[in-house]
Automatic annotation (TrEMBL), chain A:
This is Branched-chain amino acid transport system permease protein. The chain crosses the membrane at residues 49-68, 75-93, 99-118, 193-212, 241-262, 274-305, 311-338. CDD domains: TM_PBP1_LivH_like. Keywords: Amino-acid transport, Cell membrane, Membrane, Transmembrane, Transmembrane helix, Transport. One of its GO terms (cellular component) is plasma membrane.
Automatic annotation (TrEMBL), chain B:
The keyword Membrane applies. It comes from Halorubrum trapanicum. It is a multi-pass membrane protein. This is Branched-chain amino acid transport system permease protein. It is found in: Cell membrane. It comes from the Archaea. The chain crosses the membrane at residues 20-43, 55-77, 83-101, 147-175, 209-229, 241-264, 319-340. It holds the Pfam family BPD_transp_2. InterPro entries: ABC_transp_permease, LivM-like.
Amino acid sequence: MSLGTLPAVVDAAALASALDPSALLATGGAVDGLRTAARVLAEGIGKGAVYFTIAVGLTLVFGLMGVLNFAHGAVAMVGAYLGGLVLVIVVGANTGTLATILVFFVALALVFAVTTAAGSAMEVTLIRPIYDRTPTYQILLTFGVSLIIEEVARIVLTLRGIQPDPQWQAPMATAPDVLLGRTQLFGVGVRRLYLFEIAIGAVVAVAVWAFLTKTLYGLYIRAGSEDTEMVQALGVDVRKAFTVVFGVGTGLAAVGGVLLMWDPIWGPSVLLSIDVLLYAFVVVIIGGLGSFTGTLAAAGIVGIADSVTTWLFTTGIVTFPGLSEVTIFLLLVVMLIIRPQGLYGVEEVGGH
Amino acid sequence: MVVVLYMGLFAMSFDFVSGYTGYLSFGHAAFYGTGAYFVVLAANGQVPGIPGGTPFMITLVLGAVLAGLLALVIGSVSFRLTGVYFAMITLGFAQVIYELIRSWGYVSTNPTEGATVSGDALAIGVPYVDALSLDVGRLTGESVENLLGLGIDLSATVVSYYALGIVVVVCYFAMQRIVHSPFGRVMIAIRENEERARAVGYATYRFKLAAFAVSGFFGAIAGGIFAAYSRSVAPDGTFYFLVTADALITTIVGGFGTLAGPIYGTLFNQGLEDVLSTESGGIATLLREGLPASALEADLFGVSLELFVNTAVDGRAPLYLGIVFVLFVLFVPNGILGTLRDRLGGTVGKRLPDHLRRYLR
């Protein structure tokens, strides 16, 4: 969902799906209304999986540290490009479908490792000195970092002869044909890419959930988001936990970026930085800052709202092109008005 | 350098609410955009009730009042929240308006590209008195020959610069007046300790709301003079999140919570951009001409140094500004003007003469 600059692409992609014969058939008859609803729902869950993956790292970091990481989107952008780089280098014309998907997962793991290390280093060098200041300065600092990352990315890309602005087509072309088609699920044609994204989103969700509930650091995070001082008093080295969590949060952002690489509505481009950041904010705020369950639920809500409004526009029921973006940001505003702490947020977190 | 004026004024209006009350207004671009779009639409006669050809000064103020009202609406729900949540809800509002504007066919036939002023140049000065107003604009501006019989000729750009400058200075003094009034003291009290301010008996909610409306008003004036000068507005240059981000960066560099600071920050920003640019003696040109040819062709990880200079120096001000910004946040949190005032122990105008006098003896 290229928020700022590429609405035409969004609409074109959505239009293509609407012009698909099976979809047209589905939207044509009233009998098929249920089937259309199912398809829109499935697409919504697919989009929700993407939203979840890009937002979960942000909520993790905020939950423990109270730092709203404005560099989150920039890291996701870097993740998309690094993942794309691995795929472009390894995958050739003769690489099989299974091998490509395997390479994708290798790239995912590799990017996660690299960005986790980079995120930890950033926490130690830049963010640690300003914990005692007001949260405003943490926002400002991470925002500055995101600015630097974005500009460096632009320079490196231009030096390598890649246009930073429209999407980088080379890695998008490596997406195996299998994922581009549709599969019949309970009589509904669902794009396989969405199923793939749902699968990865589920894996990420389970992994983060396991990290939070089954590991010692997860315990620290859950305890720390309730009361950091108490955890410190109990002898936990919170500083080390901060470093690890910030690293993992950054790594998850990059994983989200890698996932976006094959998605035709996102794709690797420098603009991803701001887009991912804004959407991650929406999801995290709606779910409740620092809440894992909330992020999961909010991603689903935003994803379904997105697919429903996109469908409303493509079928011509509503002729306003910016409908889905407006709806998503309106969700944010309305949520903040009626329930500022979000769906599952703890009232004290963030101090509003 | 005209950019410094309108962006500086916008950053100032941002600092007025964010720096003085401590509430980060992340959707401030909404007011800038309101001012800019209102002026352009009014000049084209597209605003109902306002005939085309209404003097710019009147539409400028009307647009600013509209933005002030918008601020009241946004603020009335947003000020129930604080901290990160306030920043997020204002950002949310601004993004909603941004998305609406860039799809609103009424604005122009191609709303994503924005709208342009089709009629005559817009003039700053006394409305309906031609002798006391000056047309502004990069190409449409008025040039003045033989100023006051002094034999000084001013080009169109220079005239625009001074005309816009007058507006900015008037706005600066107006805001300065508010900041130093009892009202301004309450704003600072809210920043320092809102609960105590409320306990003392101030209705902080109303004060915050009023400050936000005033800030929105001046933000819209900044947008309005920008629109008058550039004669075209686009959603990405007015309502977008990055416009607010620009104001934020310059405010931090200049001095958070000092009204004049943002102007210095914007000046710094623009100065950096000009120094790095290819035009007239920028660093990129200097490097390209100053370095020997062999050095320029030297291999640097597979690219020549010349290409590196072209892409990594020329027009790359945001990168260096980002680095400066991070360093400022880490080491100079009060910004240029704030730190200078701390060092001198008062405002620069009052304290600097004493400090300099020491060296005269």
